Amino acid sequence: MGASVSAALASPAVAEISYQDEEPAKSRRLFLIEGVAGCDSLARLLAPFAVQQARLTEVRYSEAGDRFSARLEVAELSRQRAETLAERLRQFPIVTSVCFGWLGLAAVEA
Question: Which of 68, 79, 95, 104 has the least C-beta neighbours within 10 A?
């Protein structure tokens, strides 16, 4: 995650990942989040998901220097709730970028 992560962290971005026009009936939301690391960064990131009662299926968090990157997969989350979560995360002072999209179940199980 060395140079590619720090290059991505250098410029804040707001993007949305989408690979097809329609989502499969069974899918998972994927959130990619980057920002400034702190002793409670992970707890701050997870709090909005708890409030929305989102079921996290995978959490990957890593720090490099004073920056973090997180990859969160959430099951059974509507697009509207995902957009709400992404907007709340973008408002956090520690967050520099949030991307979200969906993964089809076949891609998740592979």
Answer: 79
Task: Give the Cα separation of 50 and 53 in Å (integer).
Answer: 5
> What's the rounded Cα separation, in Å, for the pair 22 and 102?
10
Q: Read off the tokens for 92.
A: 């956090």
Q: How is the chain classified by DSSP, letter by letter? A: -HHHHHHHHHS--EEE--SSSS--SSEEEEEEEEEE--TTHHHHHHHHHHHTT-EEEEEEEEEETTEEEEEEEEES--HHHHHHHHHHHHTSTTEEEEEEEEEEHHHHH-
Instruction: Give the model confidence (pLDDT) of 11-55 as tens digits.
Output: 344 444 434 444 454 578 999 999 999 999 999 999 999 998 899
